[in-house]
Amino acid sequence: MPIGIRTTMAVVLATGSMVPGQTVIGRPGWIHTGEGVREKNLALIHVQAYAISHWVRMRPPAITRFAMIDLEEDKQFTIRMLRDVGVLRMKGMFRDAFALNGYRDQARIETFLAALTRDLAKDDQITVAYTPQGATTSISLQGCGTATVQGKDFMRATWSIWFGQSDQPALGEALVSKLRTGK
C-alpha cells in the first residue's frame, strides 16, 4: 500500500472523522465529494447503519455517481458505524450489493471481505481505498484486518456499491453533493 493512502488511513483512524468540506488533515489536495448515512428498513424498524464520506484526489470529468465509479484516481470511502452490526450481517450486505450491481467473482469478493474479522461496534471505522498505481482496492477495519484486491473491474464493482444500483440511491447522490455545491 502506498505511503499516502496509509497516511490518510492513519489520520482518519486517529481523528475518528474528517471535517466536511475540508481536505484530509495532512493530505492537501484531497477533495471531499460528499457524505451521507446508510439507512436500512428492517421489518417495521428504520435503522441508520453507518455514516460514510467519500474523498478523491482529482475531480472526475463529470459530477455524477457514474463518473465516480469510472474515476481511475486515488479515491476513498470512510465508513463510521452508527450501531453494532454483526460481521456476518455486514459481509452479507456487501455480498448483496456486489450481486445487485452484477459483480459475481466470489473469490475476489471473499478475499476483500476477509478484512472483516469480527463484529462491528458503534464508532468502528472501515476504510475502502483505491490506488491507481497497481489498480488496487483495499479495505481495512480499524484495529483489525486489511485486504487488497487488484483490478480496475473490482474497483468499479466496489464503487458501484454506493454509486451504482442501490436500494438507497439518494446516498450515492449525497456522496457527490459537495462537488455540485462547492461547499
Task: Characterise the protein shown here.
The chain has seven helices and six strands, in the order αββαβααβββααα. The radius of gyration is 15 Å and the shape is globular. Strands 1-2-3-4-5-6 form a six-stranded antiparallel beta sheet, sandwiched between helices. The longest helix has 14 residues, at 87-100. Mean pLDDT is 86; it is low at 1-26. 35% of the residues lie in helices and 27% in strands. It has a single domain (3-181), classed as 3-Layer(bba) Sandwich (Chalcone isomerase), CATH 3.50.70.10. With 183 residues, it is an alpha+beta fold.
Characterize this entry briefly.
The protein is an alpha+beta fold. The chain has 7 helices and 6 strands; from the N terminus they run αββαβααβββααα.
